[in-house]
Structure formats: structure tokens, C-alpha cells
Amino acid sequence: MKKDFLSIDDYSPGQVKRTLxxxxxxxxxxxxxxxxxPLGDRTMxxxxxKPSLRTRVTFELAMVELGGHALETQPPGVRLGRRESVPDxxxxxxxxxxxxxxxxxxxxxxxxxxxxxxIPAINALCNLEHPCQAMADMMTMVELAGSRFPRVxxxxxxxxxxxxxxxMLASAMMGIELAVASPEGYRPLxxxxxxxxxxxxxxxxxxxxxxxxxxxxxxxxFVYTDVWASMGQExxxxxxxxxxxxxxxxxxxxxxxxxxxxxxxxxxxxxxxxVSDELIDGPHSRVFDQAExxxxxxxxxxxxxxxxxxxxxxxxxx
Length: 318
Prior knowledge:
With about 325 residues, the chain is an alpha/beta fold. It has twelve helices and nine strands.
């Protein structure tokens, strides 16, 4: 039975931890294990409804470094559900390639794509979740916190969007404390909070949604933010700037965070809006470590889906 990665919830907490361990091992040996290219006969199709830098480059490079091939498709060649139905497109792709990655506007599209193909599908972003980003986020926090992980506090300040949803699920699975601060009307969906809290009941983590960003940031080891208006919300930008201004990550807001806190951002950043230049360019910032770890996390996800025996062997190696 084929396995997809459309949501953090597609993996068990144990699978998330093993994937992160696999990513860490592959990162450590990236420059010394050039002879390990297990996907030499495999091909990945990448579908992008939304523009991309980090997602496109890291997925293509991940497949290349694993020995495979990556093919990018973009509009107008592929217009999901318009030029061709999603099921028809899925049934075509499964005849040619071994895995498909899709960055789409609507969750329904990636769900329909996965349901109609026999090859694994990876959600590279949709309106509800960004699971690959969350895996890279967890990997980055594990690296930075070291032996303290998962006994850390993460504050997410800003829009309760797709990034926030996946971060809530991953944080709960890993057993960390996450405080989300969003203005009324822009908070994460209740079902993601409820699911995260279910995971917390077994992991020992804590996920809460607040209105006050100062309360969320207090004592935080990591402070995370994202853009206030995502792609497709451009017409709301001016209104959102007014509403979210008190949620800007700046030197004043982070005074109550841990003295050695780290700043995280999934990028691209709108400097001077959700985060000040002094912080994103300052000594607390680890945003480019996050960006780098997209590559390693996604390599681990791809390998686990296409060559689980190889992934298991790497994990068993001392």
C-alpha cells in the first residue's frame, strides 16, 4: 500500500522522529557519501500552482542528490482542474514518474491528486498545511536545542495559517510547548488545535492559542513568525497590516523571551512588517538554517516513501 505525505498527521510521532533522525544523518554525510545514490532509476514530478524558491530548489536538489531526476511542471502547461481534471492528470503521471510533489492553492486539490494515483504524493504547501516546512522547523530546533529538546518553548506570533497548522501538529507530536498568538479572526482552525491537544495527551507537550503576543513570547526559546498575507490574500494586505501591527516581531516584543532565544521564519520575509530588520539580521536569527534544512528534511521524506529499506539501513548504521 502506497504512503503519502500530505499532512504531518500522515505520520505517527515515531515516524516523525525517525524521519528527523534520518534527515540529520543524511545532512551529516552529505559531502562524504556521494556514492550513496539509491534513487538512480526514479523520477519525481513537481507541480507548482504557486511561485517558489525554497520549495522548488530544495526538492529538485534533494532528488538529484539521491540519484534521481526531477521534472518541474508549471502553468500554463498544467492547470489543475481546468486544462485537465485532477484525476486524469494523476493517472497520467503515475504511468511516467515514481513520486509527485505538488504546491497548490487548495487542500482539496492535493487530496484529490493523491487519491487518484498509485504513486506517493507529497504536499509541498496548500492553504491548510505546509508539512515539509514543519519537518524542517523541527529539525532546526533539535539542532539548536541539543539535549534540551523537547523541553523547550516555541512561540508562534502572527497569522494562524497553513504553516501554523503544521507547526501545531509537529510540536504536539514531539512534546514541546507551543504558544500561538494571533488576533481574533485570524487564529488557527479549531480542528488543528483539537488534534494537536490529542497528541499532547500522549507526548507531554502543550499547545495553546492566545491573543496576547507578549504572553506567548514570555520565556520562549524560539520565536517564530510568518507573513501576514499569504499568496492569494494580496487584496487583504493593507487591512492585515493594521490588524497585525501589534504582532510584529521586534526588539520590544522579544524582551521577555529567553535571553538566548532563536528567531525562526519560514521565508520569504516581508521585512519591516511581521519582523524587523534588526532581528532577522541579528545574532538571534536562524532563518537560513531553517531554509537549508528544507533540503535535508525533504530528502529524508522522499527516501522514506520511495526506498524505505534504504532509509531503515541508514538509520541502523552506527
